[in-house]
Amino acid sequence: MENLNLENVKSYVDTLWVIDCAILVFIMQAGFMCMETGLSRHKNSINVALKNAADFGLAVVVFWIFGFGLMFGTSYNGFFGTDLFFFKTEKAEYMTYFVFQAMFVATAATIVSGAVAERMKFNGYLIITIIATGIIYPIVGHWAWSSSYLSKMSEASTLLAFTGELKTTGWLTQIGFVDFAGSTIVHSVGGWIALAAILIVGPRIGKYSESNKGKFTGSSFPLAVLGTLILWFGWFGFNGGSNGAMDETVPLILINTFLSAAFGLLTGLAISFLLFKKPDPYYVILGPLAGLVAITAGCNSMSSVVAIFVGITGAIISIFVNELLNKYEIDDVVGAVPVHLAAGVWGTIAVGLFSDLELLGTGLTRLEQIEVQFIGILAIGAFTFFGSYIILKILNYFYPLRVTPLQEELGLNIAEHNAVSVEHDLISILEKQSQSGDLAIRGPQDPFTAGGVIGLYYNKLMNKLEVSEKEKEKWRSRISKEVNLAVKVQENFLPKRDLQNYPVHGINIAAREVSGDFFSFYPHNDSVYFIIADVAGKGVHAGMVMAKASTLFEVMSRDQVDPDEMMFHMNNDLFITKTSGMFVTCVLGKYDLISDEITWVNGGHQPAIIRNEQGEYQNFDSDAPPMGVISQKDKSIYKINKQVLNGNKFYVFTDGLSESLDEEGKEIGIDGSIKIIEDNYTKDSKKHLSDITKKIIKISGPGKLSDDLTLISIGK
After folding, report:
1. Where are the domains of the chain?
2. What is the pLDDT, as a whole number, of residue 368?
3. How far apart are CA 404 and CA 621, in angstroms?
């Protein structure tokens, strides 16, 4: 056992300090998880949490295999390391150093998670983690940290023994670039990769719709604030441990970290009061995190007054960049780009502007130091962004990184992880029912997932219908019973009801047991979303497609997706998953109760009709193809129509009305449909629709409708 002299005691204290700081940085992973989960919607919370756990474990393994070697191994012309792969050592100080650095690489990876939340495949994210932690981060880390940072852990002689010879100096270190704890190396790198990823996968469905105005409500702001505070706590280890020793510099590092974050928080609070006259929780989260990121590069070489200024400015820049991203519809769920990229760049520039040059020890003048900081920022930014963008673009071509629209709307908890829920309980029950034929089984029902349930149920039913001819009679009775059950499910599924205190009405008459027509109204504050659609064909097949289209409408109406974007996503999803040969004609839109304005899109459907108070009718024909025919690449094909009703009535019906036969056996057509509407007109819209359908049934004869008949009326 070594003698306990002052030198040995200091070595033990330094090692213990770095270990403690590594533990604090590890705790930051929990902070990221809480913050990202809280800012994401509930339906994606499990997915976000699992990504945070998975990327941490994967990052550590990849860093151990070859990341550490690329970063700290013997340098190839100052660009990357060439040894120390599968890191192995018997020296405690180097073990400690590896653990501390592993925490850093995990942090860089986790930054990306929150930015791409709610729409990226889990497997795709793991691939990004490997790219970030195994290639990009170690290489740029080698440029700036390969020797100068490692040397803080030990004397030069020990370093020589560790590496064989001192050949680990990166090219940025050689020219005097300084990033003490990683404003650029860790945070901006994570931010650049996040920016590349979100540009490729695009924004969440409905995020930038006119009604949503760029905002989605996270599952829990208290949880997000807790995550922010945990990150703040862990940041003392992030910056303090970067010193590599417990010496007189540590108190300055800690107080600068503390003050920059505190003034960043107050800045976010002040800006939210200035803009919104109240404290905005999102700004209160962005502020301190931006202050922490900004001070990280120069916390050991700045005065406390300067640290305060750096934190305030970092918060302002972060909030500005956040609003800029929203303006250009670049969807960053947790503000990773504003906080980690923008504030990280600012903090690295601030090193050149405000740091004590003597403490930096680069031997450069102020202007030279500023120039070198810009060189480092630009070099790292260009390599990281363009490198990750090109790699991810190629990857996305062969393996799409984004989930399907239906998976996104249902939520990644269910789509990616089969998380336990009421919906899945119902699916399991219906699957058991389809296998056993026990109609006594019942389960919970939810209108937002019924489409998927019906689809699965009837798929199972169709498989059973493919039995041999000799078993057909045996199955007919059972099929009849199960179709009756499907009708009951559909009755619960379709909102065939009048909304109280809303001037919207609809009626549906099925030509067979299960209707291929449907309508739905979804009220939201002072407006009502509506849809009327006709699936090509009748019966069970049409009912399955109807159920899926209705589910998509209900979910996107809840998220206030604009009509053109809603039809765009519904079309593409139905094109992929519908039964071959089927398509859906549809009119969907939104009615504003305050302005009396109706906005709609017509995809291959019967014309929308507006009746004025004089009994005059105006037709608005379809100008877009039906849904499910071809995949669309641009939502602009779906033209938005707008009309202020001013007391007029808005009607849309399916071809079950226009193709009804008159007394002579001829189709009544659009003009005949309008005549029936006018002949049976009454200001009581509910009675009006009922009278119209009674007239059609009377003409056709009981039980002889040629097609499903659906009609809606909107207007005060």
Report:
1. 6-410, 496-540+555-714
2. 97
3. 31
